[in-house]
């Protein structure tokens, strides 16, 4: 413990207060960014069955994922003040026809789970 | 006075960091296959594509032996070209599940929009792309007529994401030396925020290619270029960690030279060898994940990395800067280990002496 305190003081003095901000010549910079894991499942409102092929995207961002056969999705995205997820039926009649939905994430946590229901058209 | 104090404090800090040898940065040489045939390749690591890619499970088993993992522990995927593997994202997600960060070094050729998205989805946090000059000089080094255009597209994609801590590395050589200012302007125009410059060590194919090496006078000019451009702050430019640069320490980097190989940096190499940076002589491997417990090796071995007294040999033996440099970057010791391959400080001092004549 004492040693640790000493190390911090010494680190600060030597102006390497961000002590481990380093990279090897052929390595990458370190990652000090913040993101969150968004996971969930998309189901049909009437039947309660999972929907495959729904595009889950982050508004204003290139990121998206398509729900799997269990209607599930899971991806990391940058932690932002306002984070809106878009759910879009992009595969036409395949897997049914559903209305799009936008969801504004209000909770701030490093892991969020969403149960989404979409209305059939 | 303050400078002396800082120097002493840094030495004390270094000692304590060595004693603690906290593993913060773990390279995984996940493949030695590559989609390019760069001229300098083989100088930095053994590109023996005869090796099969290591299965993710084998690597994760080694990672799972690590105890007391520091908060900012990062796994860096390297190669070969890591993006040749299509399961990088699976491994990335596994690492994130364990609470670790991960990043990737790439030549950019397979970094298209789809891959950019899938890497982001899998929780990538940092990325480095190699970019080695204007069209002609970049394509020359990369030995590929389309490389420049392809890599620029990859750079544009990388800079479009705020999530990724991204930088560009450039290998400074005879062909691009006169272009550094133009490369800088190009990178700025592509919204690149950080740029790292390095030079090539004379091993492998690089030994017999004079175009790959810069002269002492050019090295001095490179230090000046970085120094001046760090002041203007147009881009976060720095010299890589590759060596001690004497009077230019702190002018060309954020902190004093400290080769952290085997101190904070470890690696799992393609054949399971346990070492530090992949460009280090493979004779320094400390064990193998297939026969040893990775963390026990990290914790109990690595003596040659943590006590560099053995580098007091050849020209380092009687060097007045030894305490600050300690035999330069570990990757500068290949072959017989009887002398350091490159002394960056000597290059600088030689050039200055020449100028005065
Ligand atoms: S002679 Fe060795 S210890 Fe001295 S500056 Fe050069 S590389 Fe470093
Ligand atoms: S061995 Fe070389 S690349 Fe690795 S930390 Fe030391 S100087 Fe940097």
Brief descriptors of the model:
heterodimer, A: 121 residues, mainly beta, Immunoglobulin-like, 2 domains, four-stranded antiparallel β-sheet, three-stranded mixed β-sheet, 10% helix, elongated, disordered N terminus, B: 357 residues, alpha/beta, 12 helices, binds iron/sulfur cluster
Helix and strand layout, with pairings?
The complex is a heterodimer of chains A (121) and B (357).
Chain A: H1 2-13, E1 35-44, E2 54-58, E3 64-66, E4 72-78, E5 83-89, E6 101-105, E7 111-118
Parallel strand pairs in A: 1-7
Antiparallel strand pairs in A: 1-4, 2-3, 2-5, 5-6
Chain B: H1 2-20, E1 25-29, H2 56-63, E2 74-78, H3 88-97, E3 101-106, H4 113-121, E4 126-130, H5 135-142, H6 147-159, E5 165-171, H7 180-189, E6 194-198, H8 216-232, E7 236-239, E8 265-268, E9 273-275, E10 287-288, H9 294-300, H10 303-306, H11 322-325, H12 344-356
Helix pairs in contact in B: 8-12
Bound molecules: iron/sulfur cluster (2 copies).
- Element-by-element helix/strand order of chain A: HEEEEEEE
Major pleated sheet of chain B: 10 strands, mixed
The average pLDDT score of chain B comes to 93
General form of chain B: globular
- In the CATH hierarchy, the third-tier topology of the largest domain in chain A is known as Immunoglobulin-like
What is the tally of helical segments of chain A?
Answer: 1
Strand order of the largest sheet of chain A: 3-2-5-6
Q: Which structural class do you get from the secondary structure elements of chain A? A: mainly beta
What gap, in angstroms, lies between the N and C termini of chain B? 31 Å
Estimated share of beta-strand residues of chain A: 35-45%
- Rg value of chain B: 20 Å
The total domain count of chain A is 2
The interface involving the most residues is between: A-B, 34 and 63 residues
The CATH superfamily of the largest domain in chain A is identified as: Immunoglobulins
* Rg from alpha-carbon coordinates of chain A: 21 Å
| Percent strand of chain B | 5-15%
Oligomeric state of shown chains: heterodimer
